Model the fold of this input.
Amino acid sequence: MAYIATIPAFPCNKTCSFSRHELSRRYKPPTFISRTWRSTPISAKLKEKTALEYRKLGDSDLHISEITLGTMTFGEQNTEKEAHEILSYAFEHGINALDTSEAYPIPMRKETQGKTDLYIASWLKSQPRDKVILATKVCGYSEQSSYLRENAKVLRVDAANIRESVEKSLKRLNTDYIDLLQIHWPDRYVPLFGGFFYDPLKWRPSIPFVEQLKAFQELIDEGKDSLNDIIWNASEHTQVRYIGVSNETSYGVMEFVHAAKVEGLPKIVSIQNSYSLLVRCRFEIDLVEVCHPNNYNIGLLAYSPLGGGALTGKYLDINSEAAKRGRLNLFPGYMERYNRSIAKEATIECQKVAKKHGLSMVQLALGFARDRPFMTSSIVGATSVDQLKEDIDAFMTTERPLPAQVMADIETTFKRYKDPAIL
Done:
């Protein structure tokens, strides 16, 4: 869960912790203001930039910037040179964390798999490694992506798959350790990527939660042992500092935490789920309670805070150059949940709210995500430095928190369009 601090952009030690009491004072449920409008709308745009904030990630010792750089376009939509420019701009402007995956770039293809990590590795060579919070992911159950392993027909989240994934990721990234290793999606059946309702008929046997955590424990312990080894060959050791989940449910989070507590295994510190103006219900209904700092204290790393680009408004005019260059058009069928009519209707309403309050759509969408009391960091991807600049500026130039009238308008729209991107 999110702590706020204006501190240097690097991991800190355990002396930099905060009390649960201090957390609970920050975490307050949203209040809804009655609609008594002034004759002229409030402008929520600041005249001067503020600084990015840094937040403690769950129970870890990591203080992470409120923006994490997403990298899934590196190697597909972005060249290595472009990737380096985007990475450098991000870290020069306060971002201290990046998120990758063994599956990247997206869309997943055998021919391009791993390019994202290779581009990051070549950039990392010129960077102080301890100033970069590096997060990556191991794939969950998949019958289509067996090419990720040497000898597997189906990907599973078991000890063999986890070890092979980590070893290959470390090699591609050319690093000795991973700060945060996440399960990209669960080993068991769950509705994914726009799916919302659980289908009991799709239940299947899965790797036990304890077994998954034991596999992570081995990698964490090996890393700790290697640090004390005078003759240390990095190629013979792996290190994972912390673990997390992604595209996970309340049931999954609770089972992982319970298994860790009962068996004395590492506890997950983060959850990476989709969250935006168009995707709210899955987290806000019950995950928000599970992850609360006074409950399990799991930090939210929200992906797609701009709804796959839909909340920039560029897809509202399908004939615009921006829309033609966007991934929803470049890759037919990809993230189609954001391109459906009802999602477009909701996006148009969000555009009206932004215009009313003197904001761009990017400022409205990212300001909303930034200010949620349960948010640790928003994962923002960009295919150009100009896009990234606009995203970072949205965090720094939008009034913090968004004015009550802006939030009231957002809630009015939400009541009409509850999660319009559900498939």
Remarks:
- Residues 3-39, 229-237 have pLDDT under 50 and may be disordered.
